[in-house]
Amino acid sequence: MDIINAIILGIVEGLTEFLPISSSGHLIVAESLLGFKDTAEVFTVVIQVGSILAVIWYYRNDLIKRILGLSSATMQRFWLNIIIASIPAGLLGLVFAKKIDELFYHPVPVAIALIIGGIILWIVESRPSKHSQTTELADVDAVTPMQALWIGVAQIFSVVFPGTSRSGSTIVGGMLTGLNRATATAFSFYLGMPILVAAGLYKLYKARHDFSIVPGGTTALIVGTVVSFASAFLVVGWLLNYVSRNNFKPFAIYRVVLGMVILILAATGVMHSA
Length: 274
Description:
This protein has one domain. Helices cover 74% and strands 0% of the residues. It is built from eleven helices and no strands. Helix 1 (2-16) packs parallel to helix 10 (217-243). The chain is globular, with a radius of gyration of 18 Å. 43% of the residues are buried.
């Protein structure tokens, strides 16, 4: 059962990490329904690494070009934008991560964040768009430092309120600064690489002595990570294609419905509310 749980949770993590629907919200529901106890939160941290590696692998060729092309002013601005957008949430998470998890990483706060985030996503998508309704192309090199800063500020909400969704907050932040949907989504993917890698390595280091107490042990960790990588890799390509032709309103509706389901499960005792 531990291996089956690892497969299920790996799929959930991979499918939801980069969609604007909150991976933390889905993992809380899945773990509760499976009766899975993530001792010291090691399992969640490890399988998230699989999702991070998936997006890095998806963009590997472009990343290599951007690293090798650092002498270019365009590439320098790109990496400066990533640094600028990473600082606000990175500092906040480093200082207050433990306290935030204690206060808000529970079903009810996550459900509320899902619902509020869904409503905001719907409102943002309902605004008159200045962009063409035809296929949108992603152009992350068009992002300005000021836009990057505001995207970084938007990312703070995902750090403070689990369930907000890191990808959701950064995509909405990008769209509010004037980026088209495809560019905001692509920049969100790039931005997720350093902050998720840094957070993952930090948490892995802190939990290094707890690997042996994870249900299913090392085998479950490996299986969950591999499954998370595979499912996340599929999602990244699909989402980029989807947003070039469609809006995020279906995700907004899904967030609200999921949040209401979590509240009902918590109220009826099916899911522990704390």
